[in-house]
Input
Amino acid sequence: MTEWKTDRLVNICEQIADCPHSTPNWTNSGSIVLRSHNIRNGRLDLSSPSYTDENTFEQRSRRARLREGDLVITREAPMGEVCLVPPRLKCCLGQRMVMLRPNPAKCDSRFLLYSIQSPVVQHEILVNEGTGSTVSNLRIPLLESLPIPLPPLPEQKRIAHILGTLDDKIELNRRMNATLEAMARALFRSWFVDFDPVRAKLDGRKPEGIDPETAALFPSEFQDSPLGTIPKGWQIKPVGAVVECVGGSTPSTKEPKYWEGGKHHWTTPKDLSSLQSPLLIDTDRKITDAGVSAISSGLLPAGTLLLSSRAPVGYLAIATMPVAINQGFIALKCNGSASNYFMLNWCQENMAEIESRATGTTFAEISKSNFRPIPVVLPPKPLITHFSATVTSLFALILANLYESRCLVKLRDLQLGHLFRRAI
Output
């Protein structure tokens, strides 16, 4: 392998353009404005897009009009997250981000993406933490002077291809999981929100997409209820009577006996904030036996559904392993009338109602006492069991993809560290 040189970022870019230091005019549709939460782990995530009008887009594009192959890096909150602009995306910079346009004669765009993510360059970024008056801020002069490890262009392309292949598979798994989750949600909505099989039978039609045995689990008429028309024979119960709702706590972080050498998973809503699928397979922190004993709900069994109750309300995940929780959750132990897959989809469909029951002046929080009375339209248990059995295979595939992606991320990061260590 050839020797690597190091050059300043400004010398290998055709242009480095700061964002307009103003708030865009937000709209419900139009051109996409990239924001800090859209950039995580080297990838652009537009699952929660923000939009502006054409006039604002043009104003924000005066310094630089983003195009395929450009990089966007965050200056603060968080600092140093970076992504590539994909083909055919009309977008502009939001606040606290900078465009990097590599010179193709000197630097491959995807190589620069991985170079900035490498431990070598991230260290250079993080040593500047605290340069802002209130939050960490990567100022333009510091950004321009970042030392970038730079092998010859053919080697850059080979490295980018190797690491890119891993990232492409990780992204494929993410998209597959999004599709699988959407299939489960669509089935839940059809059966338990829109009541499609019941309406078909009432009209004298054969329910679409289900076999006769499944169709037989649905009634052929409706009944009135306090929530409106529901299938005959179905019940309305408060969610607190359907599942057991428990909370958690944080044992004193000043007590080493609760944390040092901990082997039990302990979670906070932060662990759920970056999930791309509603299955929790790991936690940032572990807790000891003594720590578990200090939490009234103890160690919750695998399969428990977790709902973040504050900061913010609404993160959802099924724990795939036993887990203890902090005070930011309502945990739903689904051992009786309804399964965790049923309740996961029920929470997703009823999130607006859940959020409406949150209170608080500093930040919204829903208490267990406000959550438990929310009414659930409850089908007979055989139908819930059949639904859960149907979607179990979908979630098994989601889980397998998550484990594979976790291994691929570790492999990619090892490669990233190994390849760029020679630049030290």
Notes: The longest strand covers residues 313-319.
